[in-house]
Specification:
Elements lengths: L18 H25 L10 E7 H9 L3 E2 L13 H12 L7 E4 L6 E5 L1 H12 L24 H8 L2 E7 L5 H11 L8 H8 L3 H10 L2 H7 L3 H5 L2 H14 L10 H13 L4 H22 L22 H12 L3 H9 L1 H14 L1 H6 L7 H16 L2
Parallel strand pairs: 2-4, 3-5
Antiparallel strand pairs: 1-5, 3-4
Pfam families: GmrSD_N
Protein name: GmrSD restriction endonucleases N-terminal domain-containing protein
Organism: Microcystis aeruginosa Sj
């Protein structure tokens, strides 16, 4: 699923940019391309047109505002970190469009819950309506045609203008209950026009509200995790960090031996998200402790090479592979199960750990293949990481 996040490429970099910036940009592109390939592979069988259930309604502004007022439209979706990014000028121009009766694009919403519609496309517009009509915080500015209305709030408008706003009609497409999650994902992915299409993790968080999202947010702020992954803000906004953490949690909650290649990694993470919403506080704390332990262990053993394929030092001695989902999951989960004494031994022998790891990458084509795609040969890569640790500990 190709998206527009790769707006900077190596070829576009100017000669004034430093070599370090070039390397960082190229590494980010490699990571995004790897994720897109996995996403295309995992979502290729999602779409079944016979299972789509969408109805069309014509709704007035009055009805939309009532739903917003009673929190029957969710304006704070956990799958969007940039839910309110329009400038006051852009918001004012939207209101002006209503006042001069310019038709606006349709809204798309997930109506699985009758009393809480989830916005798929149109969040910025609805947030603007709320700010202007309900909250009365938006003051009109930089209007193109109705200059006389600048500096006006909703309450300042004449009855004529208020009526134009309140009687404005919108087409709303509602995804009805009974639409399977995987079909719903494909709909989300295809019709989101307000920004980038939702990726798998954004969708996963959209349809699985609850404590799981809070846990992912908390663990994403762990200093060791941030240091080892160094995700750009752009990638954090797309929940890439959350997906990596969910991978750790998934293989902590569900044994890798239970992983089904037929169902795939996406289904496995979906299961984990649901389980994470149901576990008790003691289990949650146990998972948090294991994650923190694993991040500190990886940092002490690998440093900046953590969760990456490791090259032997090349002539320039600089370039390294991007962070790898498969290695993140297999190394972090395996490290989290170590005893303090075992970890201490591995730290003392960390160069040996790297040597054995590199040798496995070079000599074992199955292992290399297993860490080249996060969704393939899962048990094999976990078993190999365990063998590496066992070999080093037994030296």
């Amino acid at each position: 699923m190709k998206n527009s996040t790769n707006d900077i490429t190596y070829e576009q970099l100017t000669s004034q940019e430093t070599e370090l910036q070039e390397e960082e940009e190229e590494e980010e592109e490699e990571e995004e391309e790897e994720e897109e390939e996995e996403e295309e592979e995992e979502s290729s069988d999602f779409f079944d047109p016979t299972k789509i259930r969408i109805t069309t309604k014509q709704i007035t502004m009055d009805l939309l505002i009532k739903r917003i007022e009673y929190k029957e439209i969710n304006l704070n979706p956990d799958f969007q970190r940039n839910a309110n990014i329009w400038t006051d000028k852009a918001k004012s121009r939207l209101i002006e469009s209503l006042l001069i009766r310019i038709p606006l694009p349709a809204f798309y919403m997930d109506a699985t819950k009758e009393d809480e519609w989830l916005i798929i496309d149109g969040l910025q517009r609805l947030s603007t309506f709320k700010s202007f009509i309900l909250d009365q915080k938006l003051v009109l500015k930089d209007l193109e045609f109705l200059k006389e209305l600048e500096k006006n709030k909703y309450s300042d408008l004449s009855r004529n203008y208020k009526r134009r706003i309140n009687e404005a009609e919108f087409i709303v497409y509602l995804i009805e209950p009974g639409t399977p999650p995987k079909v719903k994902y494909n709909i989300f992915r295809r019709i989101n026009t307000g920004g980038l299409p939702l990726n798998l993790q954004e969708f996963r968080q959209a349809i699985n509200p609850g404590q799981a999202i809070k846990i992912l947010k908390e663990l994403a702020n762990i200093p060791e995790f941030q240091k080892l992954t160094s995700f750009s803000q752009k990638r954090k906004n797309r929940m890439v960090d959350h997906e990596f953490i969910l991978g750790f949690i998934a293989f902590t909650l569900i044994s890798y031996n239970c992983y089904s290649s037929d169902k795939g990694r996406d289904d496995f993470l979906d299961q984990a998200m649901k389980k994470l919403n149901k576990i008790d506080e003691n289990r949650v704390q146990e998972i948090k402790n294991k994650f923190i332990f694993a991040m500190k262990a990886a940092n002490n053993i690998f440093g900046e090479d953590a969760f990456r394929k490791i090259r032997k030092i090349t002539e320039d001695g600089k370039r390294k592979y991007p962070i790898n989902k498969a290695l993140f999951e297999s190394w972090s989960v395996t490290l989290s199960d170590l005893s303090e004494q075992e970890l201490e031994t591995l730290i003392e022998r960390k160069e040996n750990v790297k040597e054995v790891f590199i040798k496995k990458m070079e000599d074992d084509s199955n292992f290399l293949e297993s860490v080249s795609q996060a969704a393939t040969k899962v048990p094999y890569r976990f078993d190999t990481i365990k063998e590496i640790i066992k070999e080093v500990l037994s030296c």
